[in-house]
Design a protein that fits this description.
The chain is an alpha/beta fold and 393 residues long. It contains 13 helices and 17 strands. Strand 16 (357-359) and strand 17 form a beta hairpin. It is globular.
Length: 393
């Protein structure tokens, strides 16, 4: 029985598996059991920020695993504290809570907001249309996309998504009972859509008037991907809570919530926790990631290579205007919206040994490792040109 058949027989069918058996990864590339070398321009859905087999991550994992792999969170753990200190130093947020994933980070942030609001007569939490914040009931209650919600109701009260991310929509929704707004400053699953400056200014104005919390979901856009440590840094705003995950653990499960000092006493011992959150091996890998991102020039590279990637995609838009509707994004979080469904383009690129993804049905999503170089982008653009030419012919 082949690996695909064994997978189908043993696991819940929650993923559309690709017909690839990966044996190993190195740098920008994955290698399959049948001898193919695949250029990964998707990086495990924005997780592998340093690519595959990075020596500093491997060293950190090896050294920490030889000390201890797990401790209860009842005990002090140096890797947790060191990573928290690094995040505090590099972000200015003085408090950190570690979880295992972006979904868990979202849930923790929502609980902090609800607990904070419970003593202030504020109970409603808002998001915006087409957002993605995870798969727990808290996140699902906050989202509006039927793809994720159908069949899972009823949902939690006091959670809703604005129909549009516009100043008018948010002004109509916010009131004295608003506890928080949760926002992706660049929507990932929603199609690589940066929020507008006008919307952010409206949120800031309303926050001054009504005193709610602003939660930034940086699970996909954070840790240097947009050319800055956080995506929201492009918008002149300082959220009260920030959620992180994906790249922060260097490929190991790790999430985090960062918070302002004004929120440091909201959760008291026993109110929230996690068995595995802040795993010491994952935190050791996270230390290596943060060092490389902040000191290794990777944010500068993300900005420069992201600009190059957008330029190449805009050239393709000029050549194939009937296929490419729009190119958008920040840094190495780039989307090319097509005038047709994008799965066939993804498959055609995969046949040419380049991995990307399609999200929101028509948007080609590019999330390469932050170590990506000019030749990788030029190769991707050249092969994508071939695909577009075939589709146009």
């Amino acid at each position: 029985m082949g690996l695909q058949d064994r997978d189908f027989a043993a696991l819940f069918h929650t993923y559309k598996r690709l017909p690839l058996v990966i044996e190993r990864g190195q740098g920008m590339y994955l290698y399959t059991a049948d001898g193919r070398r695949l250029l990964d321009m998707f990086s495990g859905l924005a997780v592998n920020a340093l690519g595959y087999g990075h020596p500093e991550i491997l060293r950190a994992i090896r050294e920490q695993s030889e000390r201890y792999i797990h401790l209860s969170n009842y005990y002090l753990q140096e890797p947790q504290i060191r990573l928290a200190e690094l995040l505090v130093h590099n972000t200015g947020y003085p408090r950190v809570f570690f979880a295992n994933s972006g979904t868990e980070a979202s849930e923790a942030a929502l609980k902090i907001a609800r607990k904070w609001g419970s003593t202030r007569g504020k109970k409603e939490i808002l998001s915006v249309a087409n957002a993605f914040h995870g798969r727990t009931f808290g996140a699902l209650s906050l989202m509006d996309r039927p793809k994720y919600r159908e069949g899972f109701g009823p949902f939690l009260e006091g959670f809703r998504a604005l129909e549009q991310a516009t100043p008018a929509a948010v002004r109509a929704a916010v009131n004295q009972e608003t506890a928080a707004i949760m926002l992706e400053f660049v929507q990932g699953e929603g199609g690589i859509r940066p929020v507008s400056l006008e919307f952010v200014e409206a949120v800031k104005e309303l926050q001054r008037a009504y005193g709610f919390l602003l939660i930034a979901d940086e699970v996909q856009s954070g840790v240097g991907r947009t050319g800055r440590f956080f995506g929201f840094e492009h918008f002149d705003v300082q959220p009260d809570l920030v959620t992180l995950a994906k790249p922060i653990g260097g490929g190991l499960p790790l999430g985090a919530v960062l918070g302002k000092s004004s929120l440091e006493d909201v959760l008291q011992p026993g109110m929230h926790g996690t068995t595995f959150g802040g795993n010491p091996v994952a935190c050791a890998a996270g230390i290596a990631v943060v060092h490389q991102v902040t000191e290794g020039g990777l944010m500068k590279n993300a900005s420069a290579m992201g600009q190059l990637l957008k330029e190449k995609l805009l050239e393709l838009q000029g050549e194939f205007p009937r296929l490419v509707k729009e190119v958008r994004g920040l840094g190495l979080m780039v989307g090319a919206e097509l005038t047709r469904e994008g799965d066939s383009v993804v498959a055609a690129l995969r046949d040419r040994n380049v991995l990307i993804n399609c999200t929101d049905t028509t948007v080609l999503r590019f999330l390469p490792p932050l170590i990506v170089a000019r030749q990788h982008i030029e190769e991707t653009a050249s092969l994508l040109r071939q695909v577009f030419a075939e589709l146009s012919g």
